[in-house]
Amino acid sequence: MNTFHKFALLALISSVIVGCSSSPTESETETTPPISSSDRYQEERYELKHDVAPDQPISVEHIEEITPQYEPYSLGGNKNYTVRGKRYQVIKDPTNFKEKGQASWYGKKFHGHLTSNGEVYDMYSMTAAHKELPLPSYVKVTNTDNGKSTIVRVNDRGPFHPGRIIDLSFAAAKKLDVIKTGTANVEIEVITVEKPTTQTKKQALKQFQIQVASSQHKDRVETLAQDLSQKLSVTSFVNSEQEIHRVILGPFDDYDLTQKTLEQVKLLGYSSAFVRKN
C-alpha cells in the first residue's frame, strides 16, 4: 500500500469516527500533542478554515421542537475512539445521565458534511454533538444563563475543547440564545425512550416516516426518492429546507412495516437512515 492510499484510508476512518465538530482550533495546537495525519485531515477537509454563522441568518421559530422517540443506535459512530491522544469511551447505558458545563455551537463550516454516525450535518436541524453519549440520543438542553431549554438529537462527536460538554447546531443554539455569546452555561439531561412493546405499537407509534439521506444536490435526491419508491413499493418524497434536500419514505401507520422497511433501506446501503415522527 503506497503512502497516498495509507493516507486516504486514515482519512476515511477518521471521518466516520470523529464527526464534524471535532476539528481542532489554532489555539489548541499550542497546548496539545503534535497533530496526526488523521487530525490534519479533519482540519483540511473543510472549505472554511473557521466556523461562522450563515451569511443570511434566518429565523428558526418555524423549526419544530424534536419529539424524542425510540431509535436503535447507529451502526457507525458508537465505538470508543481517540482524539488528539485522549481516549473516549461511549456510554453504554445513558439512562438518567445528566451533565453541567458549557455549550458551544457549530455552523456553516460543517454544513453538508458527514456527522460521526454517517448522517449529513444540517445546521438548521435540532441536533448536537457530544463526546460520549451513544448515537443517536435525545437530550434536553437548558441554558442556565437565561432559563431557556430545548430538545436536540445527538448524532455527532465533539466538542473537543476544555470545559465544553455539547456542541449545538446553529438552529438549536439560536433557540437558546447561544449565538450572540458563543458559549453558554448549560445543563443537559438524556431523555430515554423505551423500545415499544407489542401492546403499545399500534397506539403509540403511528404516522412515522423514514429519513433515508440528505444532500445539497436536489436532482440526486429526487432520483434516489423515485428509485427507492419503486424498489420498496412505498411512498416517497423530497423535503427541502435551507438548501438541504432530504429523501423521506412514508408515512407509515404500522410500526412493524416501518421497521421492516428501515431494514430494507439499510440493506441497500443507507446505514444512517432513521425513523422519525410525521
UniProtKB/TrEMBL annotation:
Residues 202-278 form the SPOR domain. It is an enzyme of class 4 (lyase). It is found in: Cell membrane. GO terms for biological process: cell wall organization; peptidoglycan metabolic process. PROSITE patterns: PROKAR_LIPOPROTEIN, SPOR. GO terms for cellular component: cell outer membrane; plasma membrane. Its EC number is 4.2.2.-. Pfam families: DPBB_1, SPOR. GO terms for molecular function: lytic endotransglycosylase activity; peptidoglycan binding. Residues 22-42 are annotated as: Disordered. It comes from the Bacteria. Keywords: Cell membrane, Cell wall biogenesis/degradation, Lipoprotein, Lyase, Membrane, Palmitate, Signal. InterPro entries: RlpA, RlpA-like_DPBB, RlpA-like_sf, RplA, SPOR-like_dom, SPOR-like_sf. It is a lipid-anchor. Residues 22-38 have a biased composition (Low complexity). Coiled coil: none annotated. Lytic transglycosylase with a strong preference for naked glycan strands that lack stem peptides. Belongs to the RlpA family. PANTHER family: ENDOLYTIC PEPTIDOGLYCAN TRANSGLYCOSYLASE RLPA. This is Endolytic peptidoglycan transglycosylase RlpA.
